[in-house]
Specification:
The complex is a heterodimer of chains A (about 200) and B (about 425). Chain A has about 200 residues and is of the alpha+beta class. Chain A folds into 2 domains: about 25-85, Orthogonal Bundle (Arc Repressor Mutant, subunit A); about 100-195, Glutaredoxin (3-Layer(aba) Sandwich), CATH 3.40.30. Chain A contains 8 helices and 4 strands, in the order H-H-H-H-E-H-H-E-E-E-H-H. Chain A has helices at about 25-35, 50-60, 65-75, 80-85, 105-110, 115-125, 170-180, 190-195, and strands at about 100-105, 140-145, 155, 160-165. Chain A is elongated. Chain B is about 45% helix and about 10% strand. Chain B is α/β, with parallel strands linked by helices and about 425 residues long. Chain B is globular and about 75 Å long. In chain B, helix 13 (about 325-340) packs antiparallel against helix 14, helix 13 (about 325-340) runs antiparallel to helix 16 and helix 15 (about 370-380) runs antiparallel to helix 16. Chain B has helices at about 20-25, 30-35, 40-50, 60-70, 90-100, 100-115, 130-145, 175-180, 210-225, 225-230, 260-270, 305-310, 325-340, 345-365, 370-380, 390-405, 405-415, 425-430, and strands at about 80-85, 120-125, 160-165, 205-210, 240-245, 250-255, 280-285, 315-320. Chain B is built from 18 helices and 8 strands. Chain B has 3 domains: about 20-230, NADH-ubiquinone oxidoreductase 51kDa subunit (Rossmann fold, 3-Layer(aba) Sandwich); about 240-320, Ubiquitin-like (UB roll); about 325-425, NADH-ubiquinone oxidoreductase 51kDa subunit, iron-sulphur binding domain (de novo design (two linked rop proteins), Up-down Bundle). In chain B, strand 5 and strand 6 (about 250-255) form a beta hairpin. In chain B, the strands form 2 sheets. In chain B, strands 3-2-1-4 form a 4-stranded parallel β-sheet, with helices on both faces. Classes of the chains: A alpha+beta (about 200), B alpha/beta (about 425). At the A-B interface, helix 2, helix 4, helix 5, helix 6 and helix 8 of A face helix 5, helix 7, strand 3, strand 5 and strand 8 of B. Bound molecules: flavin mononucleotide, iron/sulfur cluster and FE2/S2 (inorganic) cluster. The site of FE2/S2 (inorganic) cluster has 12 residues of chain A, from helix 5. Iron/sulfur cluster binds next to helix 14 and helix 16 of chain B.
């Protein structure tokens, strides 16, 4: 008898992909040591998100070894780190593409065609949302409101760069541009430009 | 009388974000200098007299919130600036931090002095990395110039301001969830009481304030409580930022007094509707609040007027929609958001939002049955008022408000097995390509 038919148990603990050993580079170690000072001495755990960003920046995703390393620095258990990692959307527990394309799908962007942008990206890249292309260059994700709804459809590339007002018909050129020029192809945040900053 | 912006007057000028510009054009740090000559209690009284209400969503009087911060305690106190800005349709704090960061930094320092804190953490959403870079660089300059750090301006007052980066969670904007997240845990709310004013960050007395709220503080100190309250209707004083997005010609952030009507905001400031199509609905305060109809556009956009009209000003994110928008689709789009962002701590919200989304998807796809509409109503009402934080009510709102005002659209989906808005409209509008 099947005690746990899949339809009753949609949730599953997502295990992180195994990677090699992990330790911060000296540079990242120094950054961590500086930031942990911002919190009271008995509240190191406050630096956990920062520590995870550092590890993810170094390795591309968070492996069990990276999470253990963070646990060691925060002085908490690896389970507590995993608890945090699994909650926040900006952490990855599997390798992702060089460019993680996050398309905002929430109302204001959707009113301006975000769903079609995702469709086009999907077609041009040959992957569905949630997937990474075989060359490991692109990961396509749909995300919720990015806080720039006047510039929809908005995209966040990796966790640092932005592209605004991407019309569905321009998706193909956009992807080509991103391939050849990297993040230089992005519009960035309009305020930077209109406000006269590079 | 033309309104003169004070929060965003210079945001389109090159270098408006720099310390030099701030000092030269915005009487930079004069408010802090003046505040440090006053007694903290007098400062709180001044903010109370100004009538400043929180700009984060609830509109709670800021001076009162500060007064509740426990005084007789050996523990340190904290200011947490809520820069999580994740409410769909809201992007005002983004502009303030990116183009006028010193106003926030000065606001943080004054607020710390007022409540007796020595540290302010600015909790910024993880997606705003480009904003964080600017903010941190400018904080650095403020330290070097002696506006932050030890013995500020020779007053003996010490204050540190740090930026803390979140990592993608709408719920981190709820004040106790924000505190949990700052402590390095999942962003899930706490049971209140105790309120943050008594036991907040690290169980110490804490005031959580929105970015725009704190940006108003230096202006009040500099120009006086009377100046502030004279802008806008009674109890709704001060400059206000409105975020306008959706089917308007010039979406963006507009600063105005709360006398300004929704019509003026949409048709004058934001340039009116794209292609002059008729307006069908407007959500006036971010995705969590009830819809207002075209006949309500002459309502002034103040906390109290919008509430009287049956909605809420919330985060002042106006999402404007024309006649091509299907209201079942709208509810489905927003429930996708809520289902994804529910922190999962309470069952009605966690399960209910997922259930609502699935029901809406079915109805929207034309596969719904008449009983699904009763179920949508029933599930929504089993979330409202039964959850730990206001998220639950917010999640049910898109369903309840669209069912109340546009029930015929739901019925038509069920009856016809498809959306009944004319296909020609749909073709013109990108959202309906996959409809
Ligand atoms: C689910 C939820 C999300 C919220 N998100 C935000 C937010 O992103 N930014 C914000 O300033 N307030 C947000 N709030 C409101 C805060 O809980 C809190 O009321 C506010 O930060 C207080 O600041 P204020 O008094 O200056 O408005 C949210 C509330 C809830 C229930
Ligand atoms: S109402 Fe929703 S978001 Fe709020 S605590 Fe409960 S589950 Fe979490
Ligand atoms: S809806 Fe896309 S940025 Fe807000």
């Amino acid at each position: 008898m099947d005690y746990a038919p899949a339809r009753f148990h949609a949730s599953a603990r997502k295990l992180a992909e195994q990677g090699g050993d992990f330790a911060y580079t000296p540079e990242n170690q120094a950054k961590f040591d500086a930031v942990v000072q911002r919190y009271p001495a008995d509240q190191r755990k406050s630096a956990i998100l920062y520590a995870l960003y550092l590890a993810q920046g170094q390795q591309g995703y968070l492996s069990p070894a990276a999470m253990s390393h963070v646990a060691h620095h925060i002085r908490c258990t690896a389970a507590e780190v995993e608890d945090v990692v699994s909650y926040y959307t900006m952490f990855f527990t599997k390798p992702v593409g060089k460019y993680v394309i996050n398309v905002c799908r929430t109302l204001s962007c959707a009113l301006l065609g975000a769903e079609r942008v995702t469709e086009q990206l999907s077609e041009v890249l040959g992957i569905a949302p949630g997937e990474t292309d075989p060359t490991g260059t692109f990961t396509l994700l749909e995300v919720e409101c990015l806080g720039a709804c006047d510039r929809g459809p908005v995209l966040m590339i990796n966790d640092t760069d932005w592209h605004e007002r991407l019309a569905p018909e321009n998706v193909r050129t956009f992807v080509d541009d991103l391939r050849t020029r990297g993040v230089g192809a992005l519009t960035g945040c309009h305020l930077h430009k209109e406000g006269g900053k590079t | 009388m033309a309104y003169e912006p004070v929060l965003t007057k210079f945001v389109n000028e090159p270098n408006s974000y720099t310390l030099d510009f701030y000092l030269k054009h915005q009487r930079g740090y004069e408010g802090l200098r003046k505040a440090l000559t006053l007694q903290p209690n007098d400062l709180i009284e001044q903010v109370k007299a100004s009538g400043l209400r929180g700009r984060g969503g609830a509109g709670f009087p800021t001076g009162m919130k500060w007064q509740f911060v426990l005084k007789d305690t050996p523990k340190p106190k904290y200011i947490c600036c809520n820069a999580d800005e994740s409410e769909p349709g809201t992007f005002k704090d983004h502009v303030l931090m990116e183009r006028n960061p010193h106003l926030l930094i000065e606001g943080c320092a004054i607020s710390c002095y007022a409540i007796g804190a020595k540290v302010a953490y600015i909790y910024i959403r993880g997606e705003f990395f480009h904003v964080q870079e600017i903010l941190e660089a400018e904080i650095d300059k403020a330290y070097k110039a002696g506006y932050l750090g030890k013995n500020i301006l020779g007053s003996g007052f010490d204050c540190d301001v740090y930026v803390h980066r979140g990592a993608g969670a709408y719920e981190a904007g709820e004040e106790t969830a924000l505190i949990e997240s700052l402590e390095g845990k999942r962003a899930q709310p706490r049971i209140k009481p105790p309120f943050p004013a008594v036991a907040g960050l690290y169980q110490c007395p804490t005031a959580v304030n929105n970015v725009e709220t704190l940006c108003n503080v230096p202006l009040i100190v500099m120009n006086g409580a009377e100046w502030f309250s004279s802008i806008g209707p009674e109890k709704n004083g001060g400059p206000k930022l409105f975020c306008i997005s959706g089917h308007v010609k010039r979406p963006g952030v507009y600063e105005a007094s709360m006398h300004t009507t929704l019509r003026e905001l949409i048709y004058e400031q934001a340039g009116g509707m794209i292609d002059e199509r008729p307006l069908k609905a407007v959500i006036p305060g971010g995705s969590s609040v009830p819809i207002l109809l075209p006949e309500q556009l002459d309502t002034p956009a103040s906390f109290d007027h919008i509430q009287k009209a049956g909605s809420l000003l919330g985060s002042a994110g106006l999402i404007v929609m024309n006649d091509s928008v299907c209201m079942v689709w709208l509810a489905m789009n927003l429930l996708h958001f809520y289902r994804h962002e529910s922190c999962g701590k309470c069952t009605p919200c966690r399960e209910g939002s997922d259930w609502l989304f699935k029901l809406l998807r079915r109805v929207e796809a034309g596969e719904g049955q008449p009983k699904d509409l009763d179920l949508l109503f029933g599930v929504s009402n089993n979330i409202v008022g039964k959850t730990l934080c206001a998220f639950g009510d917010a999640a049910a709102t898109p369903v309840l408000t669209t069912m109340k005002l546009f029930r015929h659209e739901y019925e038509a989906h069920v009856r016809e097995g498809r959306c009944t808005l004319p296909a020609s409209w749909r073709a013109e509008h990108p959202i309906f390509a996959a409809h």
